[in-house]
Design brief:
Layout: E1 2-15, E2 22-24, E3 44-45, E4 48-49, H1 50-58, E5 63-66, H2 95-98, H3 108-118, E6 121-126, H4 133-144, H5 151-158, E7 169-172, H6 185-202, E8 207-214, H7 218-228, E9 237-245, H8 255-265, H9 268-281, E10 290-297, H10 318-333, E11 338-343, E12 354-357, E13 360-363, H11 365-373, E14 380-385, E15 390-397, E16 400-407, E17 414-421, E18 425-434, E19 453-458, E20 464-467, E21 472-479
Parallel strand pairs: 1-17, 2-5, 2-11, 5-6, 6-7, 7-8, 8-9, 9-10, 10-11
Antiparallel strand pairs: 1-14, 3-4, 12-13, 14-15, 15-16, 16-21, 17-20, 18-19, 18-21
Length: 480
């Protein structure tokens, strides 16, 4: 039986903001040290792992969130500027979990250098748990004040960067309902106003992101927005975090556990619908665009370790790739509601794009999904109707349509036909596929290319293709 997927070009959803494809790099486990920052242990640029830089450039990574996460709750930016040999070593949020201390080798200037090397915009998480509004204002001053204008601008110049960095995106707090101060929604809203006013006064054009809910806590969103709606508020977005968790191990799982995880990952649609409904109900559609700056799978600790004992490091199989495809399709199909998203995390932690150790590094299946989806960035999303068991999104840019698909089932190949409504599709297509039906397939240091994207041109393409169980596909063709 052939299942039809309808591509409804006249029904335009909105432009897919490239920032939906952002990544998160926290000072936790092996994300920074042994991850993006390898020193002289591997080929590097200014100490940053060259392979990761090049791979992120290849997928056009638009932004990177830093330095947390929970790490931000006790971070003092001053510890990470100036000569490295004079920087303090500190306990941090995660020290009691893994016994590691923060050497502050990667601070503000280094991280912004990394962003420049990648071609990505920085997205800072400001500490509003243990730092004062003035502390954060001073950080804004350091990175954004005009050359030679202030003491902090001169300090920046002395550290090798006279010109301002012009960091625009700032998260005001992180998970303030929990480790970020255990605040009530009303208290957080008041604190947000205080920090936002002081920060905005220090630099023009900042985009400030409020701390939203933990997954299904719609009450937090309603109460924060209800309080903020009482007066003018400087806000460009409101975040929420959603980890779809796990079922089984990261590599070893049953078909039933596959389905459990895919079903939970699909709850992202409900989360977007309901958090957005709260913003609309208070008339804050422009101020409270959705920001999903932590998302992904979170498998059980110490299952299927890669090669190290980095905190929250986990393997990534085709199941994680399908979760990635499903999630990005949902983001594309709701792009008009979303300001930005960052997957957690970039390397060696949770839903990683890379796994690395010393001189070794490889791309996970998740990375390859981002590669397959990159043509959606900046494109116009159009409506798609897909059958059960298939996740899909479609977009048009420069006369080309990109259709991305995932077979969500662990036990059924699905033959599909792409049906064009309101346009004619070209006869030549480029088809990319990831996976071959092995649900547990994953890359390792010994087999870094076991899971790779296969690319092939299709002449006289009639819209038909077979989605093998647990695989991801991308199809591109001209819109006539």
């Amino acid at each position: 039986m052939v299942e039809k997927i309808y591509l409804i070009a006249p029904e335009k959803i909105g432009t897919i903001n490239p920032d939906i494809y952002g990544v998160f790099a926290e000072h936790i486990g092996g994300v920074i040290y042994d991850g993006i920052y390898c020193g002289d242990k591997a080929e590097n640029v200014h100490g940053f792992r060259k392979e990761i830089i090049e791979k992120l450039k290849a997928i056009r990574t638009p932004l990177v969130r830093w330095p947390g996460g929970c790490f931000a709750e006790t971070y003092d930016w001053r510890d990470g500027v100036g000569p490295k040999e004079k920087r303090p070593t500190r306990i941090n949020w995660w020290t009691e979990n893994d016994g590691r201390y923060e050497p502050n080798l990667v601070g503000t200037d280094e991280f912004l250098d990394f962003c420049s090397l990648v071609g990505a915009e920085p997205y800072f998480a400001a500490n509003m748990t243990s730092a004062s509004p003035r502390d954060i204002r001073d950080w804004v001053d350091y990175v954004n004040s005009p050359e030679g204008s202030t003491t902090y601008a001169k300090l920046r110049a002395g550290n090798g960067h006279p010109a301002p960095y012009n960091v625009k995106l700032w998260g005001v707090g992180n998970e303030n309902w929990g480790g970020g101060g255990n605040m009530t929604p009303e208290y957080y809203a008041g604190e947000y106003r205080r920090y936002a006013e002081v920060m905005a006064n220090a630099s023009k054009g900042l985009e400030l992101i409020g701390c939203g809910a933990c997954d299904f806590d719609y009450g937090w969103t309603r109460r924060v927005l209800g309080e903020l709606s009482k007066k003018y508020v400087r806000m460009s977005g409101l975040s929420f975090h959603f980890y779809c968790g796990t079922a089984g191990g990261s590599v070893n799982f049953t078909d039933e556990e596959w389905n459990q995880l895919i079903d939970r990952a699909g709850k992202m649609q409900e989360l977007i619908d309901r958090h957005w409904a709260a913003a609309v109900s208070y008339g804050l559609e422009n101020s409270a665009k959705l920001v999903i700056d932590e998302w992904g799978c979170w498998h059980r600790d110490n299952t299927d370790l890669v090669a190290t004992d980095h905190l929250f490091e986990q393997q990534s199989t085709m199941r994680d790739a399908v979760v990635t495809a499903l999630t990005l399709n949902i983001f594309n199909n709701n792009c008009e509601k979303i300001r930005l998203c960052t997957v957690a995390q970039l390397v060696n932690n949770l839903h990683s794009l890379f796994l690395s150790h010393e001189d070794k590094c490889f791309c996970t299946p998740t990375y390859h999904v981002f590669d397959m989806y990159k043509e959606h960035m900046g494109a116009e999303a159009v409506s798609v109707a897909a059958p059960d068991g298939v996740s899909a999104s479609a977009s048009v840019k420069d006369g080309m349509m990109t259709v991305t698909l995932a077979n969500l089932t662990p036990d059924r190949d699905i033959e599909v036909s792409l049906e064009a409504l309101g346009f004619e599709k070209g006869k030549t297509a480029e088809i990319m596929t990831l996976g071959d039906g092995d649900l547990h397939a994953h890359n390792t240091f010994d087999e870094p290319e076991k899971v790779m994207v296969r690319r092939e041109p299709a002449e006289n393409f009639d819209g038909r293709l077979t989605l093998v169980r647990g695989t991801v596909a991308s199809v591109r063709f001209a819109v006539l």
